[in-house]
Amino acid sequence: MRVLMVCLGNICRSPMAEGILRDLAATRGIELSVDSAGTYAGHQGEAPDLRAQDEMKKRGHSIQRIRSRPMRPADFDAFDRIFVMDKSNYRDVLSMATDAAMEKKVGLFLNQAWPEKDLEVPDPYFGGQHGFERVYTLLERAAEAFLDSIDEQR
Ligand code: 4NP
After folding, report:
1. What does residue 153 show for φ and ψ, rounded to 5 degrees?
2. Of 59, 69, 123, 154, which one is the catalytic site residue?
3. CA 29 to centroid of ligand 1, rounded, Å
4. Which end of the chain is flanked by fewer CB atoms within 10 Å, N or C?
């Protein structure tokens, strides 16, 4: 299965989600291909925000090699699931979809842990390190729940 994580800048939330899901899947022996992208191209080519890198390093994950890239319509074919961090990402990604099969791939990532609650991963960009800690906690819960659902199907 191929999973794409999407946020606005692809320098804070979605690279963290990518790193967490990739590492937790490997720990469980689940074969997943994970990537991330942003709906906004303004940070294209940049490494993740240093606060995101620090938070991940503290928890034993490395995301320093990830580089921001914008989401493209071709990603709908390249990925089986597209997880978005907030409702604004959801609208932006859906606006790129051209059929119902594409739309069906898109969902709020936190709905994995809290089904149908439509909770959002808060944008930590304009805050301090505490926001990144909170983001980490939410993403880890969602990643574990997503992997639980894959394990149950195996
Ligand atoms: P992200 O955070 O969407 O989690 O990567 C942001 C990164 C950049 C900006 C906003 C949010 N920005 O306004 O440039």
Report:
1. -80, -10
2. 123
3. 32
4. C
Following CA atoms 141, 145, 151, 153 in sequence, which dihedral angle do they give, to the nearest 10 degrees? -170
pLDDT, tens digit, for every residue of 32-50?
A: 999 999 999 999 999 999 9
* Domains of the chain, CATH where assigned: 2-153 (3.40.50.2300)
Q: Over the chain, what HEC string results? A: CEEEEEECCCCCHHHHHHHHHHHHHHHHCCCCEEEEEECCHHHCCCCCCHHHHHHHHHCCCCCCCCCCCECCCCHHHHCCEEEECCHHHHHHHHCCCCCHHHHHCEEEHHHHCCCCCCCCCCCCCCCCHHHHHHHHHHHHHHHHHHHHHHHHHC
Q: What is the pLDDT of residue 12?
A: 98
pLDDT digits (tens, 9 = 90+) for 90-143: 999 999 999 999 999 999 999 999 999 999 999 999 999 999 999 999 999 999
C-beta 7 within 6 A of ligand 1: yes
- 């859906």: which residue's tokens? 94
Told to judge if 7 belongs to the known catalytic residues of this protein, a careful annotator would answer yes
